[in-house]
Amino acid sequence: MGLGPDIVEMLARARADLRMGVPIVVLGEVSVLAVAVEAMSPERLAALRALGTPLELALTGWRAETLKARVYDGDVARIAVPEAAALGWMQSLADPADDLATPMKGPLRSLRDGDAAAHRIAIQLCKAARLLPAALCAQVQDGLKFAVTHSLTAIPQALAEPLMARSSLLHPVVQARLPVEASEAGRLHVFRPEDGGEEHYAFEIGRPDRSKPVLARLHSACFTGDVMGSLKCDCGPQLRGALAQMGTEGAGVLLYMNQEGRGIGLANKMRAYALQDQGFDTVDANHRLGFEDDERDFRLGSDILKSMGFASVRLLTNNPAKVAMMEASGIAVTERVPLKVGENRFNRDYLATKAAKSGHLL
Predict the structure, then answer these.
(1) How far is the CA of 13 from the CAs of 7, 179, 231, in angstroms?
(2) What is the pLDDT of residues 302-334, one digit of tens each?
(3) Buried b or exposed e, range 197-210, using 16+ CB within 10 angstroms
(4) Around 253, how many Cα atoms within 13 Å sit in the side-chain half-sphere?
């Protein structure tokens, strides 16, 4: 490797640029200039319009269906942007906050000719940047020259596509003893992804025998539940319940994955909460925002377990998808250990939705 960044590092740059409202260029047979709608400023919109190129709004299929727009590219829709459209109009298409107040946002004209691969990468990068999955796009001639001229990050489509299929590999950084209420024999392991993303953690209790199935919990970070004690979910009680059971048994591993809000980030989770206050359940809220039911990559948990020397687990979970992921990723699940805690009057509907739509065994 030379001094310049490789494709993994360029993708990290692209995520950071999008969060700041800076455009990126996706290089392909047809190169596309893309900027995250959520972070875009009026000045940048004016600069895009000055190019004299038709603008297209890339949305996920879920968001387009909510807007009653046709989806011709599978999971992506490309909406033609009228010349007089204001930034507020584009942001209203990206953000469902006012959908019920102003349901008629069209008519919307979906584009069906051409390739949407670059638009799909732009949306995936917006998701990875924890932004709303919506990008304003414009085709540019000689994409690499355009990027160099304007000091923009350029992402080769052919190199990016295989890397966008899953989260980056993790590497151990440090571990240290950490006594906690559940067990004084605790040790925290920190793992860092090679793509510059968020770190993930493994909390090991005792000295589990690597030759036997370890009691394990794959837990996604939940600031509202784990830290604030939110009553809208069961995350906090599950975290504490899992640690308590490991402490009682004297051994276990809690995998703490920084995939807040089923992988959409805290800000988008709060947007989903606001939609739930309007009457939508947790899955429908995610769809209206443009996300899948669940955007997490559970394979990261199996990667950590393997790096720690474990080959089999007794998995503390109510989610069969986690069991299937572990098995598919080479970690044997010898037992699913139920973890039914934390139900209350505020989260009863949420738990019912997890059972009915996500297959949780509650």
Answers:
(1) 10, 37, 37
(2) 999 999 999 999 999 999 989 999 999 999 999
(3) beebbbbbbbebee
(4) 29
Q: What whole-number distance in Å separates Cα of residue 262 and Cα of residue 72?
A: 27
**What distance in Å separates the CA atoms of residue 46 and residue 90, rounded to the nearest whole number?**
13
> Model confidence over 78-102: pLDDT tens digits?
999 999 899 999 999 999 998 988 8
Angle made by CA atoms 242, 244, 247, in degrees to the nearest 5: 110
Active site (catalytic) residues? 294, 296
Residue 153, by phi and psi: left (phi above 0), alpha (psi -120 to 50) or beta?
beta
Residues 355/361, Cβ–Cβ less than 8 Å: yes
* DSSP strand pairing (170-177 vs 186-193): antiparallel
Tokens standing for residue 223: 């600031």
